[in-house]
Design a protein that fits this description.
mainly alpha, 4 helices, 83% helix
Amino acid sequence: MVNLKILRRAIAVGVMFELLLVVAAHYRPLLKPFLMFGCMLIAGVAGLLYARDLARGFGAGAFGGAAAGALCGFVAVAAANLFGDRPDLYIPYGVMVLTFTGAVGGLFGQLDALFKAFIRSQR
C-alpha cells in the first residue's frame, strides 16, 4: 500500500527542512513563535508530495502522508528537545499533530493528482 521509494523522497525533503527550521529557530529567537506552524507546514507539504507522486487514491495518499508527517514530526520535536528548546513532554503531542497534518497534506496531494489527470484528459 505504501511506495517506499516515493515515501523516502518525501521524508528526506521533510526531515531536511524540519531540521533546518529547528536549527534556525534555535539560533534566531524571533522564529520560535512560528516553529510549530512551520513544522506543521513542512509535514503537510511532505504528505502532499508523497500523495501527489503516488496518485493511487485518498486512503493511500493519507496513509503515506501520515507516515511522512509522523517521521518529520518525530525528528523535529526530538531535535528541538536536544537543543533544549522543548521538553520531552512535547514529543508525543508534536508527533500526533504533525501526523495529522501529514495525512491532510496527503489528501490534498491526491486531490492535486486528480486535478492534473483531469487537465491532461481535457487536452
